[in-house]
Structure formats: C-alpha cells, structure tokens
Amino acid sequence: MVKKKACIFISGRGSNLSSILKRSREYNFPVKIKLVISNNSKAKGLLYAKKNSIPWLIVNTKKRNYENQILMEIKKWKVNLICLAGYMRIISKDFIRNFGNDIINIHPSLLPKFKGLGTFQRILKSNEIKTGCTVHYVNEKLDDGKIIVKKSFFINENDDIESLRKKTQTLEYKAYSEALIKIFRYN
C-alpha cells in the first residue's frame, strides 16, 4: 500500500500525534507521518517526533513569513495532507490557498456548536446533554469546514471541565484515525 505523506501540526502534549503515529505503523493504515511542526519549542509532543526519527520543525509565529517557511518544508517532504492536532494557531487564508484543501483539524465539540476556544466551559454553561469531537476539513472560516467524522458521548451531572477534556480526548484518538481511513478509503 502506498501511504499518503502527512504533516502533523502541534502546540502541546501531542497525544493525537501519538495516536496517529501508533496507527501509522499498521500496514493498511493510509498515512505515514513525514514531518511534525510546532509553534512551541517546549511542546512535549516533539518528543514523539524525536523518539521516532520523524523530522520536526519549530516555527516562530512572531516572524512575518513563518508560513512560507512551513510551506517550503512541507514541499521538501512532499506532504499530501496536513493534520492539525492541538495546533493553537489560526492558519491564514493565504496558507490555506497555497497548500490546498488537504488540511484537516480536530475540534473538541460537536461542530457547528462551540467553535473556537473555551469549548468545555461553554458546553457546561449551556447545559448540553451530549458533546464529543469533530474532525473536519479546514477552510477560511474558523472550525467551519466540511465534517468528516463526529463522535459523541452523553454528559453526566458530575462532569466538569477536566472530565469532559479526558472523555473528549479519548474519543479524539479514535475519530482522527477513522477520519484518515475515511478520507483515503477510495483513493
């Protein structure tokens, strides 16, 4: 099987990166991670790249042309797909136009509800009955692209921000892999 070359963007722990990395070792999984990019030099997720000999790049988002640096690196590694996995930066419209439609993201809510930050607080404040996560294509609007996979669970009366975060992350690990399989099933 010819695997698609993916670049994973992270900002923190890299737990979704770790999950995708484990799945990518399976023969029939459609993606191989070729590059990891972070906007945070202290991101713990970079350890997964280092331990697995995956090239990685730390970008300084305060520099004006940092997205051009990313695009050059992605081109160098012949990346077919970008997976945003806890990347806490908004990607510019120019970057999206230059790379194309093959950028996906995971969001910790059932989109279109609760786009943006502060998701768990807003879910609890709204007295939602259920929540979950959504993997979607990235377009020029925040958390607005075509939905690929949604996974959900019911909220119980004892849930708080931390318990919602843990439950959601557990679903995210399954959802991201399912989305990647779904995207490339017919390619």
Provide an overview of this structure.
This protein has helices spanning about 15-25, 45-50, 65-75, 95-100, 120-125, 160-185, and strands at about 5-10, 30-40, 55-60, 80-85, 105, 130-135, 145-155. The chain is globular, with a radius of gyration of 16 Å. The mean pLDDT is about 95. The protein has about 190 residues and is an alpha/beta fold. The relative contact order is 0.16. It contains six helices and seven strands, in the order E-H-E-H-E-H-E-H-E-H-E-E-H. Helix 1 runs parallel beside helix 6.
Topology:
Layout: E1 4-10, H1 15-24, E2 31-38, H2 46-51, E3 56-58, H3 66-76, E4 81-84, H4 93-99, E5 103-107, H5 119-125, E6 130-137, E7 147-154, H6 161-184
Parallel strand pairs: 1-2, 1-4, 2-3, 4-5
Antiparallel strand pairs: 5-6, 6-7
